[in-house]
Amino acid sequence: MNGFIDIAALDDIPRQGARVVKTPQGCIAIFRTADDQVFAIDDRCPHKAGPLSEGIVHGTSVTCPLHAMVFDLATGLSVGADEGAVRRYAVRVEAGRVLLDAEFLLRRSAA
Amino acid sequence: MKQRLVVIGAGMASGRMLEHIFEAGGDFDVTLFNAEPRGNYNRLMLSPVLSGEKSYDEIVTHDADWYTSHGVDCRFGESVVKIDRENRVVYSAQGGVRYDALVIATGSAPFIIPVPGKDLPGVCTYRDLEDTNAMIAASRPGAKAVVIGGGLLGLEAAAGMAARGADVTVIHLMGHLMERQLDPAAGYLLQKDLEARGIRVHCKGATKAILGNTRVEAVLLEDGTVYPADLVCMAVGIRPEVRLANDAHLDVGRGITVNDQLRTSDPAIFALGECVEHDQQLFGLVAPLYDQAKVLAATLLGQEAAFKPVQTATKLKVTGVDLFSAGDFAEGPGREDIVFRDPGRGVYKRLILEGDQLIGAVMYGDTADGSWFFDLIKQKKDVSDLRDTLIFGPAFAEGASANPLAAVAALPPEAEICGCNGVCKGRIVQAIEGGATTLDLVRAQTKASASCGTCTGLVEQVMALTLGDGFTAIANPPMCKCTDHTHEDVRRLIKSMGLKSIPAVMQELGWKTVGGCASCRPALNYYLISDWPTEYVDDRQSRFVNERNHANIQKDGTYSVVPRMWGGVTSPAELRAIADAAEKYSVPMVKVTGGQRIDLLGVRKEDLPAIWSDLNAAGMVSGHAYAKGLRTVKTCVGSEFCRFGTQDSTGLGIRLEKLLWGSWTPAKVKLAVSGCPRNCAEATCKDIGVVCVDSGYEISVAGAAGMDVKETEFLYKATTEDEVMEVIAAFVQLYRENARYLHRIYKWVAKVGLDWCRAQVEDPVNRHALHDRFMQSQSVYQADPWAEHATTPADWAPVADLTLRAAE
């Protein structure tokens, strides 16, 4: 297994919403913006481990549902006064399917 | 001997290519096949033909004489059936033609959605003159036409038929029109303009079937809507016409694969136009096709040339609709937006910057500066010096002033600031200099910003300029950083301007961000639900997690499940079902709540639909323990069992809970009914409390027992249960219609005054009206969300599970 793998149809993810992919290293949140951009980050807020996939998506940012920390989906960096970052994963859309770069799975299991 | 050039397809791209070849004096024997029985005309101009602004003759680009004079052997109406690559021969039904070089320019075919009825007479696409003539014939005044597809082509078809007097409906699958060229704000303005021309627009509409016996009669949507139709035009997109290339075993992806020279996988065969795929890209707009024509002409003439796609801009060819879109307008990393809205004139402009460069522009209503912006995009010019005034266009850019007030300062005294009341800048300055030093005074004296209020920011800028340091902005803070309006202003404007969607509010009230934020979106969603219960559709993605998932999220990401126990009364059967569910889903904690019901804590998200469905099966529904809405009605046992009870407080509590459940409110609402003044249900610290006495029911409101502790205040003395029900429904509706989002009843009452509230519900006419509006909303929103969501368990589970893959 290498490279990008098919995760779901783009339409499985609501606009301005997210769905979760379960992996051995924890859940990854796949976000879809109002204009159909797709981003993937760890589904875990660095503050108190809130599930970011359940946050409100606005523009290309998400607000954590537990304590309202805001992250830029594209950079994984927190926005505003709080400091923090979440890990990003490469993801792309082809022919209406969402493909996730599963390289990280390989690296971890090889190690 | 002359080179033999065969061209398949007489469209705009191949026509332009032949022009270039002949202009350069290229010496070819040209044979031109075309399936359509005519030569090249300007397909872009079909829309003006449809609307009656032009005739077919005016849009012909190459007539028969032109082909004759260049010695082109025209095979119009003759379809090519096969390409023999080995012998370099092209076959039609009439026989073969040899070639040295072959150009495939078969263009594209309209996409036909595979629904029942798609082949009925009266269904057409919008691609060529035949389609256009069919639509013209069908567009007699009063005829009903349905256009499926709200993209560029579909809207031009709709506008054309509407101009001829047809009654047109556009059905569009996506949330807003022209979603590939426009963002939601501009899409909203476009929809408004089209609706003003009498075109009905149905977004988020999926076509289920086209109905009719011998010909088209109506279109049926998935949501059950039926639109009668004499003609249906499908304009949902195009796909490259690649059948010939496929049969000839050329490399074909989505289109015929070509390199920078437009050469296919066979060195003697070239392709251009809408049928090709270059660098994984397809082409539908005319500008890149003309570039291809130039490059292919050069290649065929033996010159060096390479095709490089450039940015293209889009304009909609509908008379009177001013719309412009260029470059890349998606949000993204390191990108910034500059947004300008002038709701009075229906103007929206959005510029997208990446680093020092302008990379995209979307404009609606005023596109005069479009070409200037498009130039900046194409030149990749460093715009950092212009940034502050960039949105105002070239007129201000040359001034090179970095002061954001400069634009306002530069306005002449006769420039209109307030569109509603026609107040110009000079009049406002005059008032300020005459002593109107606060916004309220300016409003009182000039009426500027006193109607719709959207020019408040501009008025304040004029005040800042005129007063200098003497100016301080008003104290009531705006709703959030996305707007300058207060909650109260937004609520008032939603009603007075009839705004019925989140994009409409953001556009008309000049939102400064593109999609709002986690603070304003839930508030707007609530205001719209409250004000337009039967028209607005709840936006689930604008809700906080608890309301979106109908369960309270816990610190570890699990949820709590609380079934409703009407008035705090349960039964052995319900308790058994709760116990079964707790065991079946290994619920870590079962707890009795303060609101007289049972909380199952620690349920995993993917188990929610199943546990809900089990509880539903036992007759229980959601307790809305997560909602800005009715929570519980706490009761004591009352006259039924208690030796002190004066009335049936338990029964009244159940009736009230059954009346109020499911309603959305600005913040949570808790009630209690006590059967006597001993007040065992603690009714006097609730949002609304009822204390029963011998002579009736004392209703008091605005209590609190949370961050603040406050005793309720007396509102109304009722003599019957029915009167209690009506007064409380009316009071809740008053709260729903007037309070700021997240304000509990006690905070709202403190602002508006209890006397005002009492006057509203004491007046019988007003009370009935409030009660009726509440019941109308309940007719829509009183539905169990558990039952609805339990039917789609897949939506609640992870969308993919890679834990097994990793083990492989």
TrEMBL record, chain A:
Residues 5-100 form the Rieske domain. GO terms for biological process: nitrate assimilation. Signal peptide: none annotated. SUPFAM superfamilies: ISP domain. Keywords: 2Fe-2S, Iron, Iron-sulfur, Metal-binding, Nitrate assimilation, Oxidoreductase. The keyword Metal-binding applies. GO terms for molecular function: 2 iron, 2 sulfur cluster binding; metal ion binding; nitrite reductase [NAD(P)H] activity. NCBIfam families: nirD_assim_sml. This is Nitrite reductase small subunit NirD. It comes from Aliigemmobacter aestuarii.
Automatic annotation (TrEMBL), chain B:
Residues 554-618 form the Nitrite/Sulfite reductase ferredoxin-like domain. Pfam families: Fer2_BFD, NIR_SIR, NIR_SIR_ferr, Pyr_redox_2, Rubredoxin_C. One of its GO terms (biological process) is nitrate assimilation. Binds 1 siroheme per subunit. Binds 1 [4Fe-4S] cluster per subunit. Residues 313-381 form the NADH-rubredoxin oxidoreductase C-terminal domain. Residues 4-280 form the FAD/NAD(P)-binding domain. Residues 627-767 form the Nitrite/sulphite reductase 4Fe-4S domain. Siroheme binds at residue 680. The keyword Iron applies. Residues 417-464, 479-529 form the BFD-like [2Fe-2S]-binding domain. This is NAD(P)/FAD-dependent oxidoreductase.
